[in-house]
Specification:
The chain is α+β, with helices and mostly antiparallel strands. Helices cover 48% and strands 16% of the residues. The N terminus is likely disordered.
Length: 227
């Protein structure tokens, strides 16, 4: 059956249909490669529905979409169109799929996409940023944004690592300051013991995690060459 929601296709394609000369199409059909689409040939329309039975054909997608577009469904009923042997065809899309033409800067031919719009939205990143100068690459803002995210993540990880109560790190001074502030009523010898205990415990945990990480990194290497 024909795709009844022609206005939806017009919204997605930015056109009402493609007036195709069916006689010329038969001679040129084999000369155009690419994907094939099933189209419904709509003749006379009244109130958004076809008055005559619709016909289907499998045509080359790029060849059909390369024709001039129809401004309205009534263009198919014009006498001049009928005399020229052209008919307005619409894509027969099912299961919620859509036919889109994507125009890429620097490419002479549009990219045809047949599928779900949600897949296209997830796979293609669209930005409102346009380079003011031609020598500025369009990917520069995305690279700068990604670099900033990695920089913040790396800086946060280094800050947390530096705060570990371990000898040689800033955590050593932080632990001493915290003990002096919260346990000021304790005897100095008792505060020093607590400080030493926390530093030993933090140094042991940090060293143990570093050794485990190095061991896990070299285990596949030893398995490959020695086992």
């Amino acid at each position: 059956m024909a795709y009844s929601n022609a206005s939806r296709i017009a919204e997605l394609l930015g056109l009402e249909g493609a007036p195709v000369n069916m006689r010329k199409l038969g001679a040129k059909r084999d000369g155009h490669g690419g994907a094939k689409i099933a189209v419904a040939k709509m003749t006379a329309q009244s109130g958004g529905r076809s008055d005559q039975p619709s016909m289907h054909a499998c045509l080359a997608a790029r060849f059909v979409t390369g024709h001039e577009t129809c401004d309205a469904s009534s263009d198919c009923d014009r006498l001049s169109v009928r005399k020229s042997g052209r008919l307005c065809v619409y894509p027969a899309l099912f299961n919620g799929t859509s036919l889109l033409r994507l125009f890429i800067v620097g490419s002479s031919k549009p990219v045809l996409f047949i599928g779900s719009i949600y897949e296209l939205v997830n796979d293609v990143e669209i930005s409102e940023l346009v380079p003011r100068f031609s020598f500025v690459p369009s990917w520069l803002p995305f690279v700068g944004e990604l670099f900033s995210k990695y920089l913040v993540t790396f800086s946060s990880a280094m800050a947390l690592l530096n705060a570990v109560p371990c000898y040689g790190l800033d955590g050593q001074l932080m632990v001493s300051t915290i003990i002096e502030s919260f346990f000021s009523k304790w005897a100095p010898s008792r505060r020093r013991k607590l400080n030493t205990l926390l530093l030993h415990y933090g140094t042991f945990l940090l060293s143990f995690n570093v050794i485990i990480g190095i061991f896990r990194s070299f285990v596949p290497f030893f398995k490959e060459f020695y086992f």
